[in-house]
Amino acid sequence: MEERESSTGSKSPTVVEELQELRQKMRVLEGQMEGRSRSQVVIKGCPFSEAIVREPLPSNFKSAKIRDYDGNADSEEHLARFKNMAMLHYYPDRIKCKVFLTTLVDSAQRWFEGLAPQSIHSFEDFQEVFLHQFSSSKKYKKTAFSLFEVKQSPKESLRDYIRRFNRVALDVPSCAPETKTTAFTQGLREGEFFRSLTKKTPEDFEDLLGRA
After folding, report:
1. Could you give all domains of the chain from N- to C-terminal order, each with its CATH number?
2. Which residues contact 131 (CB under 8 A, 6 or more apart)?
3. pTM of whole model > 0.85?
4. Backbone phi, then psi, for 11, in 5-degree steps?
């Protein structure tokens, strides 16, 4: 088919060319619509709100460098490590949601995928449901009674006993010095150092360690 000539003498597109151009525009439009459709599916099925999903990463973004969480470790410790790291890198609230998600693996990842669509609107929402779900994974909090369970074994040196006792004491930061002194003394096996303590009571826990 020949090109049509306009009244000014310039050539106009043929009908075939017009149809090809129209088809091309339609393909572009269909591609754009398909992309938008896929995006909407992701947003509608994701536990994050649309605002969180669409939040772009900052130009100076640095990824999280903490251990993955699979649901078995202490949930509070994992969250605390992440919040410290997020504070270091100045993560905005929505970015914290996205980055925290990347630390979840295995059963923790599957748990997240099973949350109600668009149910999380902030990091506060995220950490609340996270701690509630994995509350049973929290580490057992030691009390002063835990110190009285530490006993020096028959072949254990005094140095090793002190080291082991202090490791437990670190998990009981609110324990009174007098209680630590009593627990430490009661855990000692019969021996020269134990007899010296019965003869002269230590002034406090630091004095006891100094004498040891």
Report:
1. 53-137 (no CATH), 144-211 (1.10.1200)
2. 75, 76, 79
3. no
4. -90, 135
